Amino acid sequence: MSLPKTPLNSLKYQAYPGLSKAYKLSYRKILAVIALDSMSKLVVVLGMVLLLILSIGVVFGKVVVAEVVDALGRRVAVPSTIKRVVTLSPAITEVLAYLELDDLIVGADSISLQSWFMNVGEKLKARNVTSIGGYWWTTISVEAIASLKPDLVLADVGAHRALLEALEEANLTVLYLHGGSASKLEQVYSDALLVGAVLGKLSKAAEFIALTERNLAQARSMLSSRGLQGLKVLVVVDLTGGIWIAGKDTFIDDLISKLGLVNAAALSGWASVSVEQVASWNPDVVLVASWSATEEALKASGLPGLGKPIVVLNSTEVDIISRPGALTMLAPGVIASALLRAGLAPLGTGTQTTHTYTYTITKTTTTTETTTLTGVAQQVGVTQQPLVIALAAVLVVVAGVAGYYAGSRRAGH
Predict the structure, then answer these.
(1) Full-model pTM
(2) d(CA 202, CA 294)
(3) What are the distances in angstroms from CA 260 to CA 231, 249, 383?
(4) I want to staple 219 with a disulfide (CB 3.0 to 4.6 A). Which of 30, 269, 331, 332 is the partner?
(5) Tens digits of residue pLDDT in 73-98
(6) What is the per-residue pLDDT across 33-51, written as a single tens digit (0 to 9) for each?
(7) How many Cα atoms within 13 Å fall on the side-chain side of residue 356?
């Protein structure tokens, strides 16, 4: 995995500029280890993160993140103390939930308040977190955001770019992330690392990356063992006003590619196409990832007439592959599971047959939708390692204390 172009490479620190270089080195080492696609390397990753924590601790009394570069390329001065955060996107809210930072959220978009991931929506509503509007910029109230007096606003480069001037005029500190507009997995990683660095949860961000890479490796290996790598997959994201597909250079395209599959769509971006165009692409399987995919809409689209296997994802699965963020760690398992449900024969065996289409949807239960992260992770094969996690927690404390002590002595000289 190549090193993503991340805003973290532009972190600058007051009083100790050399720390920026040390951070970059640690970050590169973390990604180099993660790229080995082995969960056993998580211990090594955590060890490197601990070294970074120690290096920061050495100058703890004086270090403040003074400036970061966000996903828009803006240099943003970040407050030294952040206790109140407003999130404008469910993908961003869910990253904060995974990083155990959702208690900082004082305002969020209405979709975030409905999120099932780690039960964050219910948690926010239980704390009476203010809804600042919908997801798209035209539905968001800058006045409502300003009234909450946040230390930091986290926005999406795609959905909220048009709000930049209004947010700045309201004297609000806003960081733009890729969020739901991410087109590459590396951008999701970049978001997690930026938020983790600014809000003091870098080790959790590295853990998220390691778990996602492990799930990718497991799903890729499973598909390969069944002779399904190289499969031509078409992902339909909506059936309103045509057959809307996920083309090249989209987040779903990147996931498909990283699983060793081929996106059957020959177009770039999100596009509405005819059933004749789909037929010309000759996909091996069609995945329908739409919240509004009814049996009537599917029949009207003409897709069943192609004689290809069609798998309709349930609402939770649609969330997972459509929302780049913390949910992404579950996406490899969702895609692999959907392909297994298609009942495909291994490629190259000459046993592929025309499929009779049957519309079936498995309704996701409330229990599954509100499950904890541990439960969700176990569903896709993430093995928990309590001893390792406990040991890592102890080492974090030791590193922090040692670093603070060394920093205090340094400051005294």
Answers:
(1) 0.73
(2) 42
(3) 8, 16, 23
(4) 332
(5) 999 999 889 999 999 999 999 999 99
(6) 444 444 444 444 444 544 4
(7) 0
